[in-house]
Amino acid sequence: MTSQATKQIRLTPEGFERLQKTLLQEQNRLAEATRILQEQMETSADNEDTGLEDAKREKMNIEARIDELEDTLGRATIIAEHENEGRVELGALVTLIIDATKKEMRVQVVSAPEAAVLGGSLPRISEDSPVGKELMGRKKGDAFVVNLDNGKQMKYKVKAIDY
Known about the structure:
five-stranded mixed β-sheet, two-stranded parallel sheet
């Protein structure tokens, strides 16, 4: 058992709801994949039917995704209180100014599992991402530099923090 398996995952209420909806969708997909697999097995004359192998693989992939979602939801803690008012933490809605273009960018800082789930109106960035790591704990007015993978740097300034 790795420490990752017992580590709590902090989610926004919206993120928790999105993960639950995704789990429900995956469970419905699993029921459909199981039905297709049954049909393939009944109609398959030979064991080397590629449709049968594809159906088995698809079912295994969906089962793995369901296990992952159930694990994440089982370890989830919903973010409610903000201990560091005025500083960026999980769930924060941050307005950044991109130094090079002076354009504003509004993002929500979330945990990695939540950032991976699609949906919602705002772009979400993981606390584990380069920008997310630099953003955590910052205050309004703070400027910071992010080193990108390609060797370039991006400068940002925190314009506003909301919850």
